[in-house]
Every structure is written in C-alpha cells, then in structure tokens.
Amino acid sequence: MSEQIAFLGLGSLGTPIAGNLLKDGHTLTVWNRTSGKAQALLDQGAREASSALEAVTPGGVVVSVLADDAAVEEVLSDEVLARLGEGSLHISMSTISASTARRLAERHEAHGVKYLAAPIFARPDAVSSRIGNLCVSGSAAAKERGEPILRPLVKGYFDFGEDAGAANVVKLAGNFMIAATIEMAAEAFTLGEKQGVPRQAMYDLFSQTLFAAPIFQNYGRMVAQHTYEPVGFRLPLGLKDINLTLQTAAEGQVPMPLASLLRDRLLSAIAKGRSDLDWTGFALGASDDAGL
C-alpha cells in the first residue's frame, strides 16, 4: 500500500532512504533545512516543500532523518504536529537520546499523532542496497502502519517493544560498539606497524578469522588503510552519538569508561582539524600517540 509521505531531512542517510521510498511507489514531499539537496529526488518524482509545515498533510505520514535532538524537536514543532493531527504517523529515524524520544512521543500523543522510533544501522551505500538493520519501538498502532513502509527498506527489522525510547537506546549502544571496534583496530594495527608488521596483513588475518564480522571487515579495512574519505558519517556526528551514550549512561547510573575514552578520541580529532573526515578518522589518534 502506497502512502503520502512528508520526508524531512536529506542528509547522507535521508537521501537514499527517500529514494528507496520513491522506488517503492510512495508519494513524497521532501524538505531539508538547507536548500539544494533535493534535485536528485525531484528528478525521481518527489515534490519539494519550502517548510516542514508545508510538507506535512493532515492524517499523513512523516519520516524524519535529522541531525540531532534539537533539530527533531525544532522541526516537529507543535504547529507541525497540530497540522498532522489525529490518525497521522511520525517515523523518527534520527539517532537521538531515549529521553528525547519519550518526550517527543508524549507531545505527539497530545496532538493525536502516533510516534514510531526507527533508527537505522547502515552507511549510505548499505541504505541504497537495502541491507541495513532497523530498530523500532512504539505503540502497536504506530508499528502496524509503519512496518509496511519500513520493512522493504532493510534486511533486518527488530522490534524493541512499546517504549518509544527503547530503539534509541539500542542504536546508541550499537554505535558505541562500532566506535569501540574502531578504537580496538586502531590500537592493534598501530602496535603491529610499530613492530614492522604491515597493517593490511594484520587486517587480512583478523577479518577472515577472529573478527570475521561485517563491522570489523568494513571499518577495520578503513583503519588498516587509513582511508577516511569519502565520508559516510561525519566525525562530529560520531561525537554527538557518544555524548548521547554517556548522557544515557549517566541517567541510568551506568559507568562506561570505554565510552569516555572514545569521547576524548573524537574530541581530540576535532581539535586537530579532522571534522571533515569520516568518523572512523578518530583512529588516527592511536597513530599520533605512537609517533607515526
């Protein structure tokens, strides 16, 4: 069943998600906070709105892929929610804090809007190929309408219950684990390099044996080769996610010493002028420390 969808946020993930929704037969009205990013989607049949308010339709579906908590709360204003009204659905695919997701769900409910958290694990190429994995949480009614839209977009679809914040806890935990893998690879390959063992040779062994998993194979290759461009996920956004992880941990009184180390690695990378690299670029910190 095709839907009339307002798609808000045309960044590196939003654009390929929107493109796949168009291929699935949905009608899209797109909007982005900075102009000039919609042309490829317009060429595929999308319509562009001049504001989020103009993009949404009463009783319709909204899909948002926005940069951070503040952006989601600003864009999905009470004015926008009031226009959506009863019977509408907002699918939030942004990586935000669990507390923000819960607060958004309450605001949505006050306007009769269903809220579905649906953050995705995928880099842009994986989104385009529909091999990402999706975490969802929200009411049964929100999932009933949202699932037919979302399932065709991904390889894996995982339901974490009715708590609107649950899917975002899982997304933050996953991004923390990815960052920890990057740090692990950076330290291990730097150890080998300092002893005369080629980084690539170590990667070839570990990616086929002890760590034969997609995350290590993909990110480990970037770290082994010091290949941090093209950018799939900007380094400052990685810092945002690790800060959200630590915020969530503090709220639940959960010590995460490794997350604190990762935050400092990311901060250091930004201080050294590496903000335009992929977030994997914080791995250079291990080389810096070793004098390489």
Automatic annotation (TrEMBL):
Keyword Oxidoreductase annotated: yes
Domain 6-phosphogluconate dehydrogenase NADP-binding: 4-153
Protein name: 3-hydroxyisobutyrate dehydrogenase-like beta-hydroxyacid dehydrogenase
A Pfam family it matches: NAD_binding_2
Organism of this sequence: Rhabdobacter roseus
An annotated Gene Ontology molecular function: NADP binding
Active site (UniProt): 171
Domain 3-hydroxyisobutyrate dehydrogenase-like NAD-binding stretches: 165-280
Record-linked InterPro entries: 6-PGluconate_DH-like_C_sf, 6PGD_dom2, 6PGDH_NADP-bd, HIBADH-like_NADP-bd, HIBADH-related, HIBADH-related_NP60_sf, NAD(P)-bd_dom_sf
Keyword NAD found: yes
SUPFAM superfamilies for the chain: 6-phosphogluconate dehydrogenase C-terminal domain-like, NAD(P)-binding Rossmann-fold domains
Keywords from the named record: NAD, Oxidoreductase
